[in-house]
Amino acid sequence: MRTQSAAKRLFFAHALLPLGWARDVIVTIENGVITAVAADSSSADAEIISGVALPGLPNLHSHAFQRGMAGLTEIRGAAQDSFWTWRQLMYRFIDTLTPDDVEAIAAFAYVEMLEAGFTSVAEFHYLHHDENGAPYTNVAEMAARIAAAAGETGIGLTLLPSFYNFSGFGAAASIHGQRRFVNDPARFLALLEKSREAIKSVDDAAIGIAPHSLRAITPETLNDVLKAVPDGPIHIHVAEQTKEVEDCIAWSGQRPVAWLLDRMPVDRRWVLIHATHMTDEETIGVAKAGAVIGLCPLTEASLGDGIFEGPRFIDAGGVFGVGSDSNIEITAPSELKQLEYSQRLAYRVRNAVARHEGESTGRALYEHALVGGAQASGRNIGALAVGKRADIVVLDTAHPDLCAVTGDRWLDALTFVAGKSAISDVFVGGKQVVNSGRHVKRASITERYRRVVQRLATL
């Protein structure tokens, strides 16, 4: 049983609150939750934190183990490289990963997330079984290692065990490279229950499910799982690649997003990851359903996915957040910048995500990602407000790119100029996990990660 903690009072000269910027703000925290927020306050009896306080940004999509293969897929093959050739390299990378390896890689990725402004992660977890495809004695052994990495680093966690049943549309048999992912509905539900037990050791963790993609399940197996899991977030990869769209049409006569909207109870529980290739009708349909679009701009650029239709979705009232996906470069500001720059390239305009005159693009991006990330995580996060988890990112106002600006310009400088170098301190659940830009356990976690990647390089 967790012990109750004494109230903590943090004083910030500036903070971004739900109604906008405020000065001289005291945030009171008990048991990891914000119990009071008071602006125009005295700093007496409070711990003074230098800098600008922002709500911590949720990372709504991560495959932590892929951090260990970052940089290993940048040599062109004999054929035209694509997502599908990248996937073959990923299958080879996982051949020998042990539970210890996965925990070490995840912990290092989570350290980088925290240092770069992400205070929580929705871990889309599909690496389940041993190198031969057999379940571990604890069917959720790998999920338990993800939970252990989150607990060690202090990052907030939404664990999303992934349901992966088949290789392609129409129940195509799984292939050798997928052997560590695959479960039938019964074994997946057993894995889910063990995963629930695994996250009990992590403060304020949540759990959901992640049907991997329409190509990896069937309508029947998806319905079996959905009936057994009546609550919690539901994340699914969808319409990431044009080939996936074409294959879905060949299988069902419909595009993947249209198929989901017509045949599944898509609502606020759902998070459609990537959704790169949607028609206008699908875009409006997702927005009306209240589902979140999970964008991973750096990974989508890396894999050549295409460009999401941002302005149209925003104008339809759509909700989106950002994630780090393949973890090739872990930085919250750069995900936001890449999203905006992709829209500028597609539409040949500037300040594309900001939708009215005088609106700050940095703030628009950040606040959209807070709302969508919190909804996608299924946790009470995403704002400096009473009842929310005390996840706080502190910007260094002495940073050369921030020292001469105020208000929304801080967010513009963070996103488009300084990046993660402007982040000084990070609190998760009121506990400081990053001090002066460095995670409190960086040294030991980095050394463990280094040993893993050096061993993998010799195989």
Word description of this protein:
This protein is α/β, with parallel strands linked by helices and 459 residues long. It folds into 2 domains: 8-54 and 386-443, Urease, subunit C, domain 1 (Roll), CATH 2.30.40; 57-377, TIM Barrel. Helix content is 36%, strand content 21%. It has 14 helices and 17 strands. Helix 12 crosses helix 13 (408-418). The longest helix is centred in the N-terminal third of the chain and has 17 residues, at 99-115.
Task: Give short descriptive properties of this protein.
459 residues, alpha/beta, Urease, subunit C, domain 1, TIM Barrel, 5-stranded parallel β-sheet, globular, single chain, 2 domains, metal ion binding, metal-binding, HutF
- Binned, the helix content reads 25-40%
Given the C-alpha coordinates, what overall shape results? globular
**Total domains:** 2
Structural class: alpha/beta
Give, in spatial order, the strands making up the sheet with the most strands: 3-2-1-4-14-15-16-17
What distance lies between the first and last C-alpha atoms, to the nearest angstrom? 43 Å
Question: In percent terms, what proportion of residues is strand?
Answer: 15-25%
Output mean pLDDT.
96
The main β sheet shows up as: 8 strands, mixed
**Which homologous superfamily in CATH is the superfamily of the largest domain?**
Metal-dependent hydrolases
The name of the CATH architecture of the largest domain is: Alpha-Beta Barrel
CATH topology of the largest domain: TIM Barrel
> Which stretches are low in confidence, meaning pLDDT under 50 for 5 or more residues running?
none
